[in-house]
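Figure S7 source data.
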Amino acid sequence: MKLVHNDRHGAHVPQKEFFRGQLVDAVDRPQRAEQLWAAVRDSGVGQVVAARDFGLAPLARVHSGPYLQFLQGAHAEWLALGGTGEAFPAVWPVRSLRSDVEPKNFSGRMGLYSMDNGTPLTAGAWAAAYWGAQATLSGLDSLAAGKADGAYVLTRPPGHHAGRDFFGGYCFVNHAAVAAQAALDRGAARVAVLDVDYHHGNGTQAIFYDRSDVLFVSLHGDPLTEYPFYLGHADERGEGAGLGYNLNLPLAAGTGNPAWLAALEEGLACVRSYAPDVLVVSLGLDTSAEDPICSFSLGRPEFEEVGRRLAALALPTLLVQEGGYAVQAVGAHLLSVLRGFCGQGRQQGAPK
Ligand code: SP5
Ligand code: ZN
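Tokens for the predicted zinc ion complex:
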């Protein structure tokens, strides 16, 4: 197992986010990543690999040019307008409004390129997200082609809510999607993305919805009650050439561990029958009992089991960090997943 750190994540320091009409303390804190990295770096579970710079081109394979352009300059524009601190959108082109004409106005563009007001655009958001993508590409690069192998990438901010041309859900660049596309561009015929974050990976789903070369499988809190609310239902099966290559397994808020593991098994069966060349896992740890904004209750036995079942697929596997907000608990949970993956779990643990 290789371990890759986005050591530029600390450039992104959100202060506040809107919640129920108030500005409350931001949830995606740098301390999350510090705890995650502290838990794994010297744990013996893997070898640290340095992140390299692959440039903008791999990001432009899944994000639109105007969106990437906007992200790079947005915070400076905000400051130039007299804005202070972090920027939030205030108006969106919902149904009947046009999103095919880019406004000149900054607020107009913030709304065009975003999905919520819970994702502060900070001075360092672009740098952190860019280097998260580079760390992810470095992890992909470290995988032995065609062999059972694993790499874990510590990205922060997360990525799976970011779409082709919008940010939201604390995400700016969709690292898992960048990696899936890069794997195809490097010769893979089929890539599966398995998303086990508590929230539906709307960005990843949408990016690959009409394609059969990327299978998207997600288990998540039911969007009828859980963020992101407007995508992630079971009847979303893909469209056109992508029909049959999207599987959503929504679970009611509060769903217990046996039902969660049963849904995981259904997702894994789908991945197995697709027989991908590479597996990308959107590894959210906000499914834990301790998570402050989610309602599943996974713990050490389940996280180890996730690792074991992923390893049992015997695929080149890129584990990409998504959510997980229980700062004091996420490190232990990550280590459980990685130990399970490496056969070092405390329950069964046959060396691999
Ligand atoms: C990647 C990921 O896990 N994104 C999650 C985005 C969730 N955004 C909506 C959640 C709003 C909760 N904010 C509550 C703060 C109260 N302390
Ligand atoms: Zn999440």
